[in-house]
Amino acid sequence: MSGTDPFVLAVSRVHDGLGFLPDDDYVVVVAEGTVVDLGPRARLLGRYSALPLVDHSGAVLTPGWIDAHVHSTMPGNGRPIEEVAPAPFETRIAVATANLRAHLAGGVTTVRDLGSHLDYLAWSPGPGLMPRVLRYGMPITAERGHMHLFGGALGAARTVTDVARANLAAGADGLKLVASGGGTLGTVPHETTLTSDQIAEAVRLAHAQGKRVTVHALTNGAILAATAAGADGIEHLGFLAADGLSHVQQEALEAAVAAGVVFGSTLGCNEAYLHLSGSNGTVEHDEQSVRTEYYRRNADRVLGAGGRMAVGTDAGWKHTPFGAYVRELQPLAGAGVPAERLLHLATAGNADALGVPGLTGMIRPGHPADLVVIDGVDFAARAPKVVEVVVAGRRLVSSETQW
Ligand SMILES: [Zn+2]
Fold it and tell me: SUPFAM superfamilies attached here (predicted)?
């Protein structure tokens, strides 16, 4: 069976991106990159008996997962941006290749890269099977601002228009802006660094091409500025105030929710540090514990207020590894999001948030076949095992030998 041959996948339960289908025991028929049929095993299996059967009876099928926030060219092993950003193109691409393969094996069939160098836009992902990659290019940031090492900093002679146009001309799928400080040395997370007018200029240029804009906005002020500017997304759940602590400003929350702005979750990115052996008792452990706590609390606030949320890991940044998407689903499950909604957010919900609903995120005839099979959905109790991954109709197992 070669990578593109048709096959039949049999499972017990199916979440089609919107919700669980009633009853058990389904088959999905995949051919030429597309789902061509989906229905009860008893009714369909005979009709497709000539095709190879991939039998995962007892398991759960969902659309391939979408990670709305990664940094493909960063290793996620604790090395900071100051160390890894200066690496040559070939080194950064080798890192991205390993990262994307790890994420695919972990069930992620689409990633949105929210911060890399401009040259990353020119790379064709491969060789071997890769997730779909949406790339937002160099983050547009203040002079010496957070993530300036990717090359997207503003300056006396370099405006938002200049950097936005450079990204779009190089093929960026959307634009990322940085409206507050963050984990880059010399920046202050609770300082707002871009004005609403600056963000609005990027929104104007991206929207003119049907592309989205998301904004790293850790402060209430940056959330307000991004919302007023018409941005589509806000990354993280900081709601930081001038004292450096998280105090959700009701006005910022209400404005973002009313505008339908999507919050990128990144609940697991601080927690990643807490999983490391030897991290106990360090200053960073204390800081990351505090952040983990308020991100969870703020996720509750946003969801409770009817806000939209995209599931994103921030993989690559600092200690957040690729291949561990489930670590983002687990804290959301722990925050009370039921499995059915969680799987919707990770698939069709994220596809909507990213503006690519026809590309991926659903299981239905005629839709591209991006699929993941897992051995359970009680995310709060345990991390499920990923037992099958299909992207654009190709099975990961059948392609592994090409690596
Ligand atoms: Zn990030």
Answer: Composite domain of metallo-dependent hydrolases, Metallo-dependent hydrolases
